[in-house]
């Protein structure tokens, strides 16, 4: 294993120490681990909090700042943060306007975020939860705990963060975040496996002429292994799956903040088709350089055009990664006027910044 | 070779087509190849132009926009752009205030940029040239054409671009850019070689327990091959070399715009030591994820502290890369009040953006 690291066990904390030094306007706590805005709480402003396993940088810590996350809680690599991290982060940034908790749909995350929700509620802080489950590669709720949360997380954090910054109330922020998720679809592929430091070797082996299509962000297996193909074919492979996925229905749990209990609710994806406008995220899995992403974007525009779908915003680069994995993912989120306005709002974080 | 590409020969043009689609406010020409600001020329504003081989993305095309480059000319991978590209780009963006041409110090680039300078001068456009040669790994003018231009290029483009945006005249912009170069030092190392698409295989072989220290951005060999070491040791290895390099002197060529001829001039690096303030660039070579860069930054701050040098600005991420190479480089540029002000000025480009 070749990495720029010291002791494997120090990977997350040393990375956080580096961030603390690089961004002195962020509050970095190592015990429990969270990165938070220094200028919160602010009366009337919802605090958007997320987190998840490390190894997906810049997600989530790189998105903490004005107009995006109030706080992020990193777990160990590919491991959920613990409830106490989320609880302590919430206590630091929450005002009377409450906390919106963004949960990527993985079994461990859901378990710990749900416990944290109950702790934060018991503290008297109004809280709402939003589950992100946009990865269309995995549909079966039998094989896994439903679809995984991937690229839409980035878009949701930007938009819900802008809503919070604009002073929208908790229920409205939650409604907007859920809308982004229902409007979003993602799929990715890998040219190489990532190498988890603690394992010291690649998570899966791929031959020099093989790719893994439908990959997860933790090195989970994809839909199938296929032969190495051209960038255009890869882009077509993912885009056609994304564009043929519609009206996916599933039952999810959401916190009922009035009654202090969990509700099961059926949610159905919005349709995506001719005449729709989208934001396109072309995301590097970590080891793929940006030059190759532009080649993907070129073909993606052509394919969307052919389907009558117009890309009106784009984000191209490494935003939700899997350590050093080579590969990319595509996320399309249907946009409406309100989502465009919130997307365009100023943001200032380590990884995403404009207007400030 | 595993890459997200189509035909090898289309790598650069397809990437540019992707950029054209992603950034409709940029003018992308495929014949000759350049990316330029759409809102230039503007009377009284110097046009900052650079370029170089492709494969170092986001450099240079990713830095075209308000407050940075007026235009960038990409060559084929690791190959200089031709004089006609630079000449045509200059004709598109130059006002009466003239053109400042930034040249990374490589034999091919210098040759073609010098020819372009003469063509642009013959067109009646005032022109100044600035050579960037900050890579302290290579000092001998016998072995190579002097020190290579690497990380300081990014800092120079931001600062000279801000000076041009602020309406500084050509000679002042040139003086500021040269000051950044005299104030800057860089060094890098590689964990893996890059793979040039046309070659189809790695440029050099490294064993699983080896790194190459003092690497160039084209896969040029480093100072020496060493054993794999910890992130802290790697950071120390580069930082100590950078901090012990002082008062490097060399003779370079600069265009004499009054007499229309080349002048040879001796330039000497500014000292860097106790009490100085710097910007630190911790740069991924392309395949190294940002998480590892923060571990480097953590140690870099400690080492600079021990030397009495204060890092007052930082830039951490992939900015001047070598395709998919894993590794990193460190650049330190001594800052003064004017350089800080220009660094902080608003910028809006695909790869670097704030305040707009």
Task: Kindly describe this structure.
2 copies of one chain form a homodimer. Chain A is of the alpha/beta class. Chain A has 2 domains: 13-184 and 249-270, Dihydroxyacetone kinase, domain 1 (Rossmann fold), CATH 3.40.50.10440; 186-243 and 273-334, Dihydroxyacetone kinase, domain 2 (Hypothetical Protein Tm841, Chain: A,domain 3, 2-Layer Sandwich). The first copy, chain A, has 8 helices and 16 strands. The first copy, chain A, has helices at 11-22, 83-93, 107-122, 152-165, 170-183, 231-244, 290-306, 337-344; strands at residues 26-30, 33-37, 47-54, 71-77, 99-104, 127-132, 184-190, 210-213, 224-227, 249-256, 261-268, 277-284, 310-317, 327-334, 347-348, 353-354. In chain A, the strands form 4 sheets. Chain A has a 6-stranded mixed beta sheet, with helices on both faces. In chain A, strands 9-8-7-14-12-13 form a 6-stranded mixed beta sheet. In chain A, strands 10-11 form a two-stranded antiparallel ribbon. Chain A is globular. Chain A starts with 10 loop residues before the first helix and ends with a strand. At the A-B interface, helix 1, helix 6, helix 7 and strand 16 of A face helix 1, helix 6, helix 7 and strand 16 of B.
